[in-house]
Amino acid sequence: MNKVRYGIIGIGKMGHNHALRLKAGLDRNAVLTAVCDISEERRNWAKEKLKDVKIFSDYKDLLDCPEVDAAVVATPHYAHPGIVMDALNAGKHALSEKPAGVYTKAVRELNALAEKKSGQVFGIMYNQRTNPLYKKAKEIIDGGGLGELKRINWIITNWYRPQAYYDQGGWRGTWEGEGGGVLINQCPHQLDLFQWLGGMPEKLKCYLKVGVNRRINVENDVTFYTRYKNGASGIFVTSTHDFPGTNRLEIDGDGGKLVIEQNLLSERLVFDRLKVGEKEFSAANKAFMPRIPSERTVKRATMLQNAVRLGLVGQHINIFRNFSRAVLFGEKLIAPGAEGINGLTLSNAAYLSGWTGREISLPIDEDEFLSELNKRIESEKNGKISAAQ
Questions:
Q1: What pTM was computed for the model?
Q2: Which parts of the chain register pLDDT below 50?
Q3: Cα gap 380→374, rounded to integer Å
Q4: Considering Cα of 86, then 344, then 260, then 256, what sign does the dihedral take?
Q5: What's 257-321 look like in SS3?
Q6: Domains present along the chain, CATH in parentheses
Q7: pLDDT tens per residue, range 354-371
Q8: C-alpha distance from residue 27 to each of 22, 129, 244, 317 (Å)
């Protein structure tokens, strides 16, 4: 195999962009050979824009196509696990869009199957793991530079979405269509990074607000608190109704502090590394109000990197390039598909806590979560959803 032959299932907003990038040859180790969509309008677009690419209306026909080595699943959220499983069972490599699914029970089943398919590559489109600043933070943390985790806080409220956003499709802003709101739609990348950098907590307590100033059935304002095995804590705050909003990640450890902050056109990482660990310094220090000696590292995103972050070039192609090299040459995946369950576990726990008013221990009770989700879907069908849910 000289190039990975990709077939894209779902050519809506994300699948559309993936198709154009692959067709333009932005991954030299890849070629787009097929697409699939149930929408006739989208298939007609593909006929016009994607010359010499096979077009299907049924994804199982695409999976049967011998000219497809890897399937990219870019369908609505609920369908991700089932279609990826069908792709793996058809002998294809599989790359799933985020989130891995809506509920962890389905994704756990997918992961169990993927583990048995050792010769097939399974990845997830966590493109923000390719951001140089998050990569640098991961390098610092994994290298021990931050020391033992004390606290991780993320305020990400720059997802502004007006009512018109939710009105553009009947599936948006619904439990049945999307499986949730800001947690499942806008924040899967940040939830992944929250655990990728800070690790998985033991407990989570969440407060959800449904439909703040919007005619929607799902949450658009969330604050949750996390507790970790070593006693560390965390806070995650997000919304889609604040403007201009904030995007600031802080991670504190015994060895220093990391801050990554994004504005519209700028992004930077600041790492204050203590020359002596805080515990060690405190034990030996005799001064009343001292400062611990430290050294500061500042890393800023370049203009090109900001263009990539803002979607003018695209981080997604970096995941494709890595995935293609994993298929062809065995390169380690930046975002293994099996890790998709981690961020989803955080969002499921947040929902379950918000719905029940309890602090949730991880791993969650997956049957209870699914039962509570189905109650909201049923209420939605009966027109009984309210902000008090």
A1: 0.94
A2: 386-389
A3: 10
A4: negative
A5: EEEEEECCCCEEEEEEEECCCHHHHHHHCCCCCCCCCEEEEEEECCHHHHHHHCCCCCCHHHHHH
A6: 4-125+314-331 (3.40.50.720), 129-311+343-381 (3.30.360.10)
A7: 999 999 999 999 999 999
A8: 6, 18, 35, 7
